[in-house]
Q: What sequence folds into this?
């Protein structure tokens, strides 16, 4: 990426520069200071910043230009001149061929998101709340307190047909014979246990009654509701979406060379001409994910 260097740094006033970039973003150039970097990550959302290792620049959405100037001044680097950049952000709907959806991570500003591998790079950002909304997961529920419906990625009002479809889909993606993700075997067990309970009409009614009671009963949300079903509440370190690849129709905005998803509209499996479904997974220690057609 090329950028225009103009006289934004008044001699002796700042060790930093705010540079208007060709794509409408702001380039932030400063001496390395770990406390400044930490403060920058905390002050600016992950989706609005990107570090370019080659150019040694932070690329930041222009709305944060004043924040960058404040940070530079606060860290004794002087206050750089703030360029005036006007950018029109347009919401778009895109069909994303996501080959692998990474684990969610804390991005340093309190937000959590997963990166999707699209068109040969990590060019799609999926906030965890967006993923949880699509898979009918309580945003605030700890991973070990997920409902059986959330394990299968369906709503509580799902029909028997939808239940069976969700089971087949998630079981195929997490089967230990094809999935090498850490914890795949345990996740596969949870999926089977959830389906065994929910496919039985009597057990499902009892379970739904338990959900209703738990929603009304006073208890500490941090503890989460507990069910008497075997192995359902085995703790997981973080929540992982039931699917890790697919053709995803999503709404969002283009920002810093990435598509930031604000809503998922549709999610279908990736299939080939032979009718096989793509399953991708990432084995611990590998440099990239593997693809299998099953």
A:
């Amino acid at each position: 990426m090329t950028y225009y260097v103009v006289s934004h740094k008044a001699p002796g006033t700042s060790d930093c520069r705010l540079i208007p970039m060709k794509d409408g973003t702001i380039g932030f150039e400063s001496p390395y200071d770990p406390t400044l970097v930490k403060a920058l990550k905390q002050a600016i959302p992950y989706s609005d910043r990107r570090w370019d290792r080659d150019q040694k620049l932070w690329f930041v959405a222009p709305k944060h230009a004043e924040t960058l100037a404040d940070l530079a001044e606060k860290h004794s680097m002087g206050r750089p001149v703030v360029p005036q950049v006007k950018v029109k952000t347009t919401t778009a709907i895109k069909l994303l061929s996501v080959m692998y959806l990474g684990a969610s991570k804390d991005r340093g500003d309190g937000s959590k998101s997963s990166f999707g591998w699209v068109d040969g790079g990590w060019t799609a950002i999926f906030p965890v709340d967006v993923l949880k909304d699509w898979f009918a997961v309580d945003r605030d529920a700890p991973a070990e307190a997920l409902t059986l419906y959330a394990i299968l990625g369906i709503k509580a009002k799902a029909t028997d047909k939808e239940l069976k479809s969700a089971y087949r889909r998630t079981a195929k993606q997490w089967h230990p014979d094809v999935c090498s993700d850490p914890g795949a075997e345990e996740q596969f067990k949870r999926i089977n246990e959830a389906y065994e309970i929910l496919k039985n009409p009597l057990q499902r009614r009892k379970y739904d009654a338990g959900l209703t009671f738990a929603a009304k009963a006073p208890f500490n949300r941090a503890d989460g509701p507990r069910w008497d079903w075997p192995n359902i509440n085995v703790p997981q370190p973080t929540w992982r979406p039931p699917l890790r690849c697919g053709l995803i129709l999503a709404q969002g905005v283009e920002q810093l060379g990435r598509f930031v998803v604000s809503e998922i509209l549709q999610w279908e499996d990736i299939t080939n001409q032979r009718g096989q479904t793509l399953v991708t997974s990432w084995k611990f220690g590998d440099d990239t994910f593997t693809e299998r057609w099953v």
About this structure: The mean pLDDT is 85. Residues 1-88 form one domain.
